[in-house]
Design a protein that fits this description.
Length: 194
């Protein structure tokens, strides 16, 4: 009986590793949609599906596993694999104004997972997705503003309101996708029985 329990726990860990790897891979794919549709760049901000997959990772995998999947994605990019937006990668990404968004994906997944671990209704999943998307925007946009102010060359007429104006373009898309992510994760968690 104890041997069967250990085998079951090992299998669950293996499945979790596969699921976390899957979400890290989905982040890589979602990051580079702008490479195939180049007009999806506003200001310095590429419009991607990363926020969607970060929210989905948290709502589907839970706070810890979702956040780990995002850490894996970021580490793969920082060691040099071209997995960030526009097939960028390497440690120089840390100095990019958009690096705050990458960091925020860890918190985005964690927050989404944290909320759904408290309550698992459809409404809770959608609220988790929306709250974590707002976190992504607040953290990433403020990081970008500080990066342009402190260490990156500012565009002409740069201001805090201009940065938020850049973010207004992808915001409706991300709100709609957050609702889709919350609904989808709620349905899938019932099917997969996580």
């Amino acid at each position: 009986m104890d041997v069967e329990l250990v085998k079951t726990q090992e299998r669950i860990r293996t499945i979790d590793l596969v699921r976390m790897s899957l979400f890290a891979t989905l982040m890589m794919i979602g990051a580079n949609i702008t490479s195939f549709v180049p007009f999806l760049v506003v200001g310095g901000v590429p419009i991607t599906l990363q926020t969607f997959f970060a929210v989905l990772a948290g709502t589907f995998l839970g706070k810890r596993k979702g956040a780990i999947a995002m850490v894996v994605y970021i580490l793969i990019g920082l060691v040099g694999a071209p997995v960030f937006a526009r097939f960028q990668g390497g440690p120089s990404a840390i100095l990019s104004p958009n690096f705050g968004f990458l960091l925020s994906f860890i918190g985005t997944a964690y927050i989404a997972g944290y909320i759904i671990e408290k309550k698992s209704t459809l409404k809770a999943f959608i609220v988790a997705a929306l709250v974590s998307t707002l976190f992504n925007y607040i953290f990433g946009t403020n990081w970008m503003y500080m990066a342009y102010k402190l260490w990156f060359a500012q565009p002409e007429g740069f201001s805090y309101s201009l940065v938020w104006l850049w973010m207004a373009v992808p915001f409706p898309k991300d709100i709609a996708l957050a609702i889709v992510a919350g609904s989808f994760a709620h349905r899938m968690r019932k099917v997969v029985k996580l």
